[in-house]
Amino acid sequence: MAELSPTGTIGAATAGLATAESAAASPGGTPVESTELSYREAVARGIAQEMRRDPRLVMLGEDIAGAGGVFKTTVGLLDEFGPQRIRDTPISEQAILGAAAGVAMTGVPVIAEIMFSDFFAVCFDLLANEIAKGRYMTGGQLQAPLVVRTHNGAGSRFGAQHSQSVENWCMMIPGLKVVAPSTPVDVIGLMASAVRDPDPVVFFEHKTLLAKKGLVPQGDIVDQLGVAKIVREGTDCTITALALMVDRALQAADRLQADHGISAEVIDLRSLVPLDTRTVLGSVERTSRLFTVEENPRLCGWGAEMVSIVVDEGFWNLDGAPVRITTPHIPIPSAASLEDLAVPSVDRIVETISRAMG
Amino acid sequence: MSTDAVADGHGAAGSDTSAAPPIAAPMRTAMGAAGTDPSQLYDYGRRPPRLPDPVNVANDDLDIALDDRLAMYKMQQILRQMERRAYDLFLQNLVKGTSHLSLGMEAVSAGVARAQRPDDYTFATYRGHAHTMARGAPLGPVLAELLGRENGILKGKGGSMHLASVEHNMMGSYAIIGAHLCIANGTAWSAQMRGTDQVTVAFFGDGATNIGAFHEALNMAATWKLPTIFVCENNLYMEYTPIDLVSAVPNPAADRAGAYGLQSIIVDGNDADEVYVAAAAAVSKARAGEGPSLIEAKTYRHGGHSRADPGKYRPDEEVEAWLQRDPIPLYHQRLLRLGVDESTLLSIQQDVAARVDEATEFARSGAEPGPQHLMSDVWADGGSAWRN
Ligand SMILES: Cc1ncc(C[n+]2csc(CCOP(=O)(O)OP(=O)(O)O)c2C)c(N)n1
Ligand SMILES: [Mg+2]
């Protein structure tokens, strides 16, 4: 690890791989056969891949074994890995995360599922005070090789207690890594990197992306935490997005091009901690404008941190004020019409950007 | 904490108990005894004292090897003398922050730890100095940690409330009530999965029995038959409030055991032998794959809750009676009755005193942690980087 500044900058440790590809086995560069998989199926495949690789890995959560998960993200795992490794638990979120923390302390890797990310609020002590801080407060003695998976985000008309995007709750806690994939292939690759990471990783699966399909190469897929992806190149502005917002940003970029002649570059951040600021700063250096598209409510969303970094370190590259496009600072409403108004839509992204760039 | 602040939150408590179920009777009498004058409701020092049971001399006959007994005597001496030293160093303003001493409660740590194997796990609360040392953590680094020194067992980064010695499978001290009971199930589950017969012991206070994590942990441990041993150190008080005023049952841990299919076990926490025997039984049960146990050890702290607290909310007669039940003179007398020479015991005391002086020297000679420790140990790579 290179020398650290008080802001936690890594010296020259990580190359900012703007186009990091998921490293599917591809001997001799021959194209690997791909199959179409849903985001939901990718979750189970990513977990299964890691369970086959590491026979110690276990998973626990409510309704994950017999039922295959309330979102069917763990279907088939009980059959393949058995009830010792795939465990149904009582409705005891503290006991779930506590057990995961204790297992991880013994060096055994573990995945815990919290059914809805909203429920982090009933076990936040375990996440924020115990799991995140164990290593630091014991002077490096305790370890926590664990992944907390959860279902995050709006779009299901579930109302204020089952629809939140709470990645910023986790991002603000020192000691937690935070990942939120937007495609099936990234689900698998980032799941693998999260499981293999020796530190606690919170893994957000977006409920509205579960049915999304994508081509996934066969064989093991392993990705890297802290590497953003430029998913669309452009020259006039940079749009950073996460999870569900990535597809909306991409659609907005197409319309900005077609209707307004604006060439937008879209970056899928994929992970908030570690945060690939280099890719974003590099992009803004070329485009001179920054927009963030965030599903979290306005205050203290990840975009605020992103804007702060870009203003601080890339100010002279900017041709205009960075603009955040977020869910307003309200609880998520249930009615379809209201929920759709709350969360950033393609229309809102296009409007906001075209106005700001006009 | 001001009396007003407490009263604000519980203004109506004890005023109408007519609808209370019979189980609340002890609470009613306790509250009633403070008088019907609301201003006296929270004057805990004027409640009737809760006195210890008489010493059980029959425990002399418990089948415990003399070696074990001498080891427990020595451990209690270590814990007593180290805690006293910590207090002295606090009075010299060398121990900063807060600290919660186990003075008066040493028999619990010494008795339970003696029943454990080196590869068994231990979890403690912020009142964890004794449990950490009882698992074999080196005394100098423990004391240095209290002094916030670089040679502290946590490099000065955790302090009094977070003592750990993972090398000794002492997996940490936790300052958020109840959480570690859930974590303890994790090391127990890991042992179960790995097919080792390691057990996990988790200590907690009487106050912890009223937080959700306690109940979640017990239910999971019982359902999964985990080798977790939950040991409640019931010292009759939370910070300043008597536990019986806020609990639905008189024995806050033991009376809840039945809800999780567990046996109700109460021991004299001021008698190391009684603690040891109960712990050994729970350990054998856990090793045999027969699941968790919940032990409630009745004890009392000699001082206040934390270092700044003179403990004035406790009736004088109660404090006096419990001081008379000090676990260490009790054990000393037992060993004499069992034929051990006074001189043997004295030399143990003196050896320990020398070690405590040595530890003090070690701690006092430590440097303050330098800035290189500030940003380290967040991640496994040793650093704290969150961006590139
Ligand atoms: C969740 C939580 N609530 C409140 C506190 C503040 N607090 C610290 S110690 C304590 C009393 C605990 O009493 P008990 O469990 O009996 O343990 P003892 O201190 O007597 O060993 C309280 C309320 C805390 N640390 N954590
Ligand atoms: Mg207590």
Secondary-structure topology with pairs:
The complex is a heterodimer of chains A (358) and B (388).
Chain A: E1 34-38, H1 39-53, E2 58-61, H2 77-81, E3 86-88, H3 93-105, E4 110-116, H4 124-131, H5 134-137, E5 146-152, H6 167-171, E6 177-179, H7 184-196, E7 201-206, E8 213-217, E9 229-232, E10 237-241, H8 244-260, E11 264-268, E12 271-273, H9 277-287, E13 290-297, H10 302-314, E14 323-327, H11 336-342, H12 346-357
Parallel strand pairs in A: 2-3, 2-4, 4-5, 5-7, 6-7, 10-11, 10-13, 13-14
Antiparallel strand pairs in A: 1-8, 6-12, 9-11
Helix pairs in contact in A: 1-7, 3-4, 8-12, 9-10
Chain B: H1 3-9, H2 25-33, H3 66-91, H4 106-114, E1 121-125, H5 129-134, H6 139-146, E2 170-174, H7 179-194, E3 200-205, H8 212-223, E4 228-234, E5 265-268, H9 272-287, E6 293-298, H10 316-324, H11 327-337, H12 342-365
Helix pairs in contact in B: 3-4, 3-11, 3-12, 4-9, 6-12, 7-8
